[in-house]
Specification:
Four copies of one chain form a homotetramer. Chain A is mainly alpha-helical and 205 residues long. Chain A contains nine helices and no strands. The longest helix of chain A has 28 residues, at 118-145. The structure holds a DNA duplex (21 and 21 nucleotides).
Chain lengths: 205, 205, 205, 205
DNA sequence: TATGAATGAGGTTTCATTCAT
DNA sequence: GATGAATGAAACCTCATTCAT
């Protein structure tokens, strides 16, 4: 019982620190952020941070892993709910935009602070983004096999292009002074990706 | 004559410092880069850096402006050489990939170091990237007007998607241990963007 | 109890840093003094200095305030112990000389380092010296009112002259290689100030 | 002829640099003053300063010597014009105040910038101030011998007290926001020094 | 003689992290 | 486990001075 209660307390404190880190990193930027401010925002002493995380960069990595895993799981679940590859892709894109639109500070950290160095990016790319790219790649590959998607474009290129396009929309939204809702942009983006930019004869829109 | 020679000397020295900065920033990352190493790499004294650039960040900004302007000018020129909007877009994409593939250290700085803070990103986004997005947007808009492109997708979304897709390909290339040539990826990316991901009945590829 | 002990510890450490600063400033001069040397002399780490004082100049200001206040309080107390304005003035002069003679390094800092810039002097002059001048002025004014002192000299001039004369004796003592004791000079100075330089008929000395 | 003309040119340039140094030192303070600003103010190139003076501190010393010598010569001449020791002292005091009141920037440098370090002060004290103290001391000593002045106060103490009193008046004038004319203060100061602060029976003022 | 571009030594301060309590 | 006072490494930039022209 004591163990369980302690564990709950520990878990809550860990979450508070992580939330504080997101807010402070978003507000100040990773480099300018001070561990002291994170501690104060979380309501703990400076030294306590180090009982939960190995250091400043570990905090950044933890933010990434904490949310990326949940996000990836939700995206996979959403994709699995439908059979049509087109709908799978649409589900992933919508989930991506919705997940980040819900929490602007977190989106800021994801789009900007998590990319502050090559070494860090490598860890990110090898870790979470790679998993995400694989998910898209799998959908595209399956779609090509079933005849729903074209088969003449390397799925890795498609996956990167899809991810890059979404990613840029989000970054624009994060940096904008008066951003337009992300959710609105899912439809047009999907239309572009699915059907292409060229006008079709006999199927004008 | 002395003035001309001095001016040439100054110009050469400025270029040497800028080149050194690209190399050191790419090798160490902006934060870990030491001004001393830049100076040594450029073959000048520490203090000389400050006769040419206001400081470390000014060096980063100068790298951006120096190359972004030239790149943008070349992209515009390429686009203007052809009339077909499809070919214009193809020209810009190819130029983008080719420009960065030519100089990997510079590409590294563009893809990673130039994005190390929100404040900096804002300057970048508002400055050079915005110009680039406008270029793409203009092509897309004109293409829609002439009937070559669809008219139902907001051109800003298209522009961001195109830029994001290219950008991500480049970033993947910069971070990869064994990158595949960027030039090879222009074709598939364009095919995807132009014609879309969905398979066409009666026109299988 | 822990709080009281900590507070004592903090107070002792603060005093040690201040003492170290006096010694190093006197030995090297303010500009040439190194914060590192102050830290080493105080037996703390470099960064610890900044937990107690805002910076190098704050150290100088703290030396001034710390000692000037005590000195002024003692001078006032001494003056209040006697009723005769002549004795009041004598008490202040003696206290001034005695206070600085007790601690040569401190005297050095007071006479030289505390005057290293106009900006700083203004703070000094407006702050502590002004208070000191007021004390003398008050004594002189009261003495004139009671008929003990002349009434035809502006008290501000008298106060500045008295302060300047003492100050110069101390500076001479600080700069001298083989200084003669300051205490010995109080009597002659007072005789001069009180009775004047001119010989008196029928009252030869 | 060429030599004479060159020499005149050199002399004028030297004077311009010295004047520029006085102005810049007074405006910024010695430490904050930049050699570049002195050069610009004098209308010469940075390097030219070093063809006339050994360095920044040499500039300060040159200001001192240049003006102190002239001032001392004038003070001596003034003193020699009268026979009465009282009038000699009055002449020196008046000259002192008048000399500095004429040029506020120079007065600033004399009162503040010339005292910025012990090493420097030693040079000053050993050099010019010592000569000045000797002048006063000689007058006081002669006055005592002739019976005009008291003989019971060590002349060195008197000299320092006189110098200190004048010096403090000037410093107050330099630092004041709205200074009252120095010349007005010569009379009261002399009255104090000559006749003393105590009220005289039967000779009230 | 005059120039001014180049030099390069030098130091205060910040802040992530540690560890005695 | 929690605290927070203490640590100390680390680097950008300034500016007096030099010297090739």
């Amino acid at each position: 019982m004591g163990g369980a209660r302690d564990s709950g307390r520990r878990e809550r404190r860990r979450a508070a620190i992580l939330r504080a880190a997101v807010d402070v990193f978003a507000k100040r930027g990773y480099t300018a952020a001070r561990m002291r401010e994170v501690a104060q925002s979380a309501g703990v002493a400076d030294g306590t941070l180090y009982l939960y995380f190995a250091g400043k960069e570990a905090l950044l990595i933890a933010i990434l892993e904490e949310h990326a895993e949940g996000f990836l799981a939700r995206a996979k679940r959403d994709a699995n709910r439908v059979a049509d590859p087109r709908k799978k892709l649409a589900a992933v894109v919508s989930r991506h935009l919705a997940s980040l639109e819900r929490d602007r500070a977190l989106a800021h950290v994801f789009q900007i602070e998590l990319r502050h160095s090559r070494r860090f990016l490598r860890q990110v790319a090898r870790g979470q983004v790679a998993k995400y790219l694989h998910l898209i790649e799998r959908i595209v590959r399956d779609g090509a096999a079933s005849g729903a998607f074209r088969g003449d474009i390397p799925p890795e290129v498609t996956a990167r292009a899809v991810f890059g396009a979404i990613d840029e929309l989000v970054t624009g939204w994060v940096l904008a002074t008066r951003p337009r809702p992300l959710a609105e942009q899912a439809g047009p983006l999907l239309a572009l990706l699915m059907e292409g930019l060229e006008a079709r004869l006999g199927a004008q829109r």
